[in-house]
Amino acid sequence: MRSFSSVFSGAVLILLLAVSQTTFSATVSGNLGVTAIVGAGCQVNASNVTAGIINFGSLDFGSINTIGNQTIDAQTTGAGNGSIIMECSNGTTFTISLDNGLHYASSTRSMVNAGNPSVLLAYTLYQNVARTVPWTTSSPLTGTANGAPATFPIYGRIPPSQTGITAGTYNDTVQVVISW
User: Fold this and answer.
1) What confidence tens digit (pLDDT) does each residue in 4-57 have?
2) DSSP string covering 67-92, please?
3) % helix, strand, coil for the chain, step of 5
4) CATH number of the domain to which 150 belongs
5) Which residues does residue 151 pair with via DSSP β-bridges, in sequence order?
6) In a domain, 155, yes or no
7) In whole angstroms, what is the distance from residue 98 CA to residue 115 CA?
8) How far, CA to CA in Å, does 177 sit from each of 15, 113, 142?
9) How many domains does the chain have?
10) DSSP state, 106?
């Protein structure tokens, strides 16, 4: 009988262990806090950056035979489709300012003739395609973001009837400052 008793007691022990595991199982639940802080901010298209400076493209008036009495218009092209592209959190107010360029003279932006720096070709920058809202240091573009990406091209115009303009390549550099 002894051997029967030890086999029986071993089977009882296994049965008790199996029952005890299911008897002591439980479910515990709790909460996980999830937070985020969204600040007023903007992300500027910076796909073309050299030495920390964003290239917003160029304003190229092309080849001009003569200024005469014609108005010559252009729009920014190049990096970022030649526009300032940015996305700001909804409700963020922003300002896009353009400085006067390197060759500002007589209250107007000017391009300098690379071969004859004393010759300047005047031009004006605008905020709209109709070229009715000048983009000056005292009138930056301001707005309030709606949370979607926004594109801001820069429009330019060379006014007619400029005298003393000699043949050559004219250029200027305008700094763009975006703040929010």
Assistant:
1) 455 555 555 555 555 555 567 889 999 999 999 988 899 998 667 788 888 888
2) -TT--EEEEEESGGGGEEEEEE-TT-
3) 15, 35, 50
4) 2.60.40.1090
5) 85
6) yes
7) 26
8) 78, 26, 12
9) 1
10) T
Tens of pLDDT, residue by residue over 78-109, are 665 678 889 999 999 999 999 999 999 889 99
Cβ neighbour number for residue 95 with a 10 Å cutoff: 12
Alpha-carbon Rg for the chain in angstroms: 35
Query: Which of helix, strand or coil describes residue 94?
Result: strand
Q: Tell me if 125 is assigned to some domain.
A: yes
Q: Is residue 144 part of a domain?
A: yes
Cα dihedral sign for 151, 49, 177, 145? positive
105 bridge partner residues: 108
Q: Whole-structure pTM over 0.70, yes or no?
A: yes
> What residue numbers bound the domain in which 57 lies?
42-179
CA 78 to chain centre: 15
SS3 for 159? coil
Please answer whether residues 152 and 81 qualify as being in contact, where contact means their C-beta atoms are separated by less than 8 angstroms.
no
